[in-house]
Amino acid sequence: MDAVYPLDATAPASDALVRARTHLGDYELTICTDGIYRLDGGAMFGVVPKTLWQKRTPADDQNCILLGLNTAIVRTGHHTVLIETGIGNKQSAKMREIHGNQELLPTSLAAAGIHPQEVDIVINTHLHFDHCGWNTTLHPDGSVTPTFPNARYFAHAGEVAHGHLQLDRDRISYLSPNYDPLIQSGQMTLLTTEGIRANSEIVPGISVELFPGHTAQLMGVHIQSTTHAGTQRHACYISDLIPTSAHLDPTWVMGYDLDPITCIAQRKRFYQRAIPEDWLVLFTHDHHSPMAHLALNEKGKPIVRPT
Fold first, then answer.
1. Domain limits, the chain
2. Cβ-count burial of 243 within 10 angstroms (0-12 exposed, 13-18 middle, 19+ buried)?
3. 20 to 30 A from 236, CA-CA: which of 24, 40, 83, 283?
4. Are strands 291-296 and 302-304 parallel, antiparallel or unpaired?
5. CA separation for the pair 196, 65 (Å, rounded)
6. b/e string for 42-69 if b means 16 or more Cβ within 10 A?
7. What is the mean pLDDT of the chain?
8. Of 127, 174, 128, 135, which Cα lies nearest the Cα of 151?
9. Kind of pairing, strands 27-40 and 80-83?
10. 4-304 in CATH: which number?
11. Phi/psi at 90 (nearest 5 deg)?
12. How confident is the model at residue 199, as a pLDDT?
């Protein structure tokens, strides 16, 4: 098994800029952060009673829980691939006050020795504001420019179409400046469902797969490499299908999920492969445990496998 080196858990959250590093076969995998933010615990756990979820994730006096904003960077030797870009710097003062987000991704990348100019691929699993915010950077004069000027960006066309509808249910989640300028310039490639089924590979070793439920076109990102001994290593950034390690129970889905029944089915489908094949699972919103291997406990429930 490839070693994982998490940061000292006692370090202040705002100072822990690089959340983890490991090697996956020949690839270097780094988890950077846009910092922490807070969301209502009830919304994050849907119909699960607080008496249950608070045993795994404590809430503050406002019923909010601490979440991370994890960006995965994969250096393959041929490409530097960045998966998700956090909340970014376009939130209003009111929203920053509500979420307490920190806008740390540029600082985190610098701490990891990763320069925006070297990133040549950016993948957004979906286009909610907390997953694509640093796709672009807002400047004091109101202009917006690509944060990663040499990158090709990838997202699902259905996400863009849904975001443009600005539906009452989730319009707050979609901010046009995070993606429309990139589409208009041609820097963002919009994938289609049929295209993903036919050819899901973005670059060699990096591919996407649909795991609908949270949104209709949520994508997981597969990372596959081979060790010098010829052994295959597999990781998957599963995004908001399983946002944190506290959400591993198939039925512990979020209030934010558009189709919770589909989420449950998709989680079960994911576990059927991820557990027996010993995938390294990358959690998008788990600040303290950004990556883990999974196992089944004595009751057949998925858990983080003890190291």
1. 4-304
2. buried
3. 40
4. antiparallel
5. 34
6. bebbbebeeeebeebbebeeeebbbbbb
7. 93
8. 135
9. unpaired
10. 3.60.15.10
11. -110, 5
12. 66
Report which of 306, 240, 304, 289 is spatially closest to residue 20, judged by C-alpha positions: 289
Nearest to 41 by CA among 244, 214, 290: 244
Tokens of 290: 């950004």
Find, among 241, 216, 206, the residue nearest to 83 by Cα.
206
Handedness of CA 180, 186, 187, 193 (dihedral sign): positive
Q: Which two tokens stand for residue 130?
A: 């907390």
Count of positions (residues) in the chain: 307
The type of residue at 291 is: M
Q: Which residues pair with 203 in a beta bridge?
A: 206
Assign 233 to helix, strand or coil: strand
- Give the span between the Cα atoms of 240 and 39, in whole angstroms: 14
E strands, 253-296, in order: 280-282, 291-296
Cα Rg of the chain, angstroms: 18
Tell me the mean pLDDT in the region 10-25.
74
3-state helix, strand, coil in the chain (%, to 5): 25, 30, 45
Q: Per-residue pLDDT averaged across 180-185, rounded?
A: 98
Bridge partners, 68 (sequence order): 36
Q: Does 298 score more than 60 pLDDT?
A: yes
